[in-house]
Amino acid sequence: MAAVQETVDRVRQIDVDQYRYGFETLIESDKAPKGLSEDTVRFISAKKNEPAWMLEWRLEAYRRWLTMTEPQWARVNYPKIDYQDLYYYSAPKPKKTIGSLDEIDPDILKTYEKLGIPLREVEVLEGVVRPEGQRKIAVDAVFDSVSVATTFQKELKQAGVIFMPISEAIREHPELVKKYLGTVVPTSDNYFATLNSAVFSDGSFVYVPPGVRCPMELSTYFRINERNTGQFERTLIIADKGSYVSYLEGCTAPQRDENQLHAAVVELVTHDDAEIKYSTVQNWYPGNSEGKGGIYNFVTKRGDCRGNNSKISWTQVETGSAITWKYPSCILRGDNSRGEFYSIAISNGHQQVDSGTKMIHLGKNTTSRIISKGIAAGVSQNTYRGLVTAHRKATGARNFTACDSLLIGDKCGAHTVPYVEAKNSSALFEHEATTSKISEDVLFYCVQRGLSQEEAVGLVVNGFVKDVLQQLPMEFAVEAQKLISISLEGSVG
Amino acid sequence: MTALLEVKDLKVRVEEREILHGLSLTVNPGEVHAIMGPNGSGKSTLSHVIAGKPGYEVTGGEILFRGEDLLEMSPDERAAKGVFLAFQYPVEIPGVATMNFLHVALNAQRKARGESQLTTPEFLKKAYAAAASLNIPRDMLKRGVNVGFSGGEKKRNEILQMALFEPAVCILDEMDSGLDIDALRVAADGVNALRSQGRAMVVITHYQRLLNYIVPDFVHVMSKGRVVKSGGKELALELEASGYAQFEDAA
Ligand SMILES: Nc1ncnc2c1ncn2[C@@H]1O[C@H](COP(=O)(O)OP(=O)(O)OP(=O)(O)O)[C@@H](O)[C@H]1O
Ligand SMILES: [Mg+2]
Questions:
Q1: Do B108 and A448 touch (CB under 8 A)?
Q2: Which residues, 6 or more positions from A434, have their beta carbon under 8 angstroms from its beta carbon?
């Protein structure tokens, strides 16, 4: 019918050609020679002044990686990646030790300003109404391979919270890094995680001591700038007994014709009664409307609820990347621990998303909740892939899963692939799934009331994902809401 | 005087089938027109085409709004110019609070007209006043648009929007269906309160009863895609007594 076609046509000329973060920053950089070898690994380790144990750890991962093959099971298609045709390290030049923000290359500061990220010690994200109580956000910014600034260091230190680039933590807190690194995502975990273990260059490290409620939101912004450069960041967050921290990462990249590889690893550990809330707003460049360019986002994120009564909550808003391969998961080891996964995954144009979560119930009375909202438009493919398991000792394990998919047009696809496995008869797993098309009647109702077609799509989609948006910290919920509307925008008039 | 709304010899097809076969209707400012007619005669189709719903092919005739070609305008432009349709079947929009929807929609219309945006407090004041006069509790406005609303509540929500947007032409498609006697009176009072010199109403209904509350200046009988008879309010009484059979042949 004509009505449907009209919306399809509008939405097809999607925002991917209007990616707003697609500018490039022209600065000189210091790069490792192209390609991957033991020398590359040694080069990166040396650049970071790493201790010998760290180099060994990397080399072991590298040797392991050589024996592995790229996974094929996800519902994504892309040409073979030539791992020798990439740069594995790139740092903005001139690079001296940075003592304060004023020493950062002003061009980089400008980049972050354009992105609306407060590297200056401002209190909230630009343009966002601050809620009561004057919340602050500490920011760590990673530009290509290195961390360029971490704000609010002093205040955090007073609270006993360690928040710094992981490269620095390796030198300053080796005992903590050694104790936790690779314990949630082992170096041998999967092809991309192993690659990351060998060549990761920076990322954030957080340690919250026992009983401390982190006094502000922590946040990291990742930006890929260089051409042909892979970004392999590594994040490690530890919430010690009875502590709490909320962490947010945001990502953008310039618009480029070639594909860029991003293979991050994030490890979270919660001890007894601790909680980590981890939120992601991922807006890597998705490629243009013909499917050229865009980020390959192959990410391993996992949290270990190591202690009793601990909690890990993942919230993600995924609107970017040409390909997303990502399953933030929880290992519910401690008794009464809880895992949550709230996800909004939007695919448009030629984007391919294969994302979901794993909830692994090991401890008694562990509970988990999965709310996934997939929105597919254009000729994109959007897959939810989830695994819920209860092991023999996981008496009283509970899971609730709800997966809803919304299709815009009839050239896209939404798929739900849930795996459920209960080895304990007292486990109770509930699963609900729906797939629906955006309704022409609903869109018409909105435009009859004065909204443009685009505003109508944005409004309906924001309503569809409301349950998940509510999980985001206030400041970012507003941002995310805008991002969602933008990423589904058709061409105007 | 230019008419507010002028439908001239309108021919409309839906999926290869002609539904309206040359329909004409002229509505002047301040007038209330009632359109009656059997099921399937094309009343809702007419209202949809005036509002600009996609999926209808206009194969002949024209629609003028204050002398301008309405068919050239996008549906949101028409809304901003003052064309309002109270739907026979209002849809639900889960997750979008009614209050937020009303605010966003009103500001979108105001923006299109080059008027200032209403701040939240300004808007709330206006919305609460309008809701109160229609017996709509504030709680209802916090819920998703029409989500879980009863049939009567949905219709009242339509009248509420009409009151807030202050349109020039209001087309009410069976606003009386699903309303109990009391709700009908409240809704009709709401509509009557909006009657004014500059504003016109097109009231589509099957029942003469509604026209006791909203007294029309003209009554039109539609059959098989045409207006087959027009008259004053007494025509509705006549229909009530004798049914549509007498017009079937005329069509
Ligand atoms: N999308 C459509 N596809 C096919 N036929 C349609 C479509 N919309 C309307 N029609 C047909 O057009 C004719 C007129 O329908 P319309 O809804 O305008 O009638 P109505 O006068 O409003 O009826 P009622 O009093 O029952 O509300 C009907 O025969 C209907 O089946
Ligand atoms: Mg009808």
A1: no
A2: A403, A404, A405
Q: Nearest Cα to B146, choosing from B226, B86, B202, B231?
A: B86
Measured CA to CA, the distance from residue B6 to residue B24 in angstroms comes to: 8
pLDDT band at A86 (very low <50, low <70, confident <90, very high): confident
Nearest-CA neighbor of B89 among B151, B162, B14? Answer: B151
Rounded Cα–Cα distance for residues A463 and B225 (Å): 38
Is B34 a residue whose pLDDT tops 80?
yes
Question: What is the distance between the alpha carbons of residues A461 and A480, in angstroms, rounded to a whole number?
Answer: 12
**Residues B169/B4, Cβ–Cβ less than 8 Å:** yes
Q: How confident is the model over A234-255, as pLDDT tens digits?
A: 999 999 999 999 998 876 555 5
> Residue range A376-390: average pLDDT?
90
CA distances A203 to A237, A265, A482, Å, are 11, 9, 27
ipTM exceeding the 0.90 mark: yes
Q: How far apart are CA B151 and CA A318, in angstroms?
A: 38
Does any ligand 1 atom lie closer than 6 A to the CB of residue B45?
Answer: yes
Nearest atom of ligand 1 to the alpha carbon of B55: 1
Inter-chain residue contact A450 with B79, CB threshold 8 Å: yes
Of the ranges A89-103, A122-136, A181-195, which one carries the lowest mean pLDDT score?
Answer: A122-136
Better-predicted residue by pLDDT, A382 or A227: A382
Structure letter (DSSP) for residue B92: P
Q: Which residues of B are less than 8 Å from A446 in CB distance? A: 93, 105
Query: A487 or A55: which carries more pLDDT confidence?
Result: A55
Pair of tokens at residue B7: 């439908």
Ligand 1 proximity of B43 Cβ (cutoff 6 Å) = yes
**Of A446, A465, A471, which to mutate for an interface test with B (greatest number of B Cβ within 10 Å)?**
A446
Contact of A491 with A468, CB cutoff 8 Å: no
Q: Which of A103-107, A433-437, A480-484, B160-164 has the highest mean pLDDT?
A: B160-164
What is the Cα A298 distance to its own chain's centre? Answer: 10
Distance (angstroms) between ligand 1 centre and the Cα of A305 equals: 58
- Pair B220, B229: CB distance under 8 Å: yes
B45 Cα–ligand 1 center, Å: 6
Cβ distance A451 to B105 less than 8 Å, yes or no, reads yes
Chain B residues contacting A, CB < 8 Å? 15, 51-55, 57, 74-76, 79-80, 84-85, 87, 90-96, 101, 104-106, 108-109, 112, 144, 161, 165
Ligand 1 site, residue B40, Cβ cutoff 6 A: yes
Q: pLDDT at residue B13 above 70?
A: yes
Q: How far is CA B204 from CA B37, B42, B208, in A?
A: 9, 11, 11
DSSP A402-467: EEEEEE-SSS-EEEEEEEEEESSTT-EEEEEEEEEEPPHHHHHHHHHTT--HHHHHHHHHHHHTHH
Which residues of A93-182 form beta strands (DSSP E)? 137-143, 146-150, 162-165
Predicted confidence (pLDDT) at residue A16 exceeds the cutoff of 90: no
Contact assignment for A459 to B93 by CB distance below 8 Å: yes
| B15 touches ligand 1 (CB under 6 Å) | yes
Instruction: With beta carbons less than 8 A apart as the criterion, state whether A227 and A257 touch.
Output: no
Tokens at A181, concatenated:
């690194």
Question: How many Å apart are CA A52 and CA A73, to the nearest integer?
Answer: 36
Q: How far is the CA of B19 from the centre of ligand 1 (A)?
A: 8
Closest ligand to B87 CA?
2
In this complex, which of B54, B92, B105 lies closest to A3 when CB atoms are compared? Answer: B54
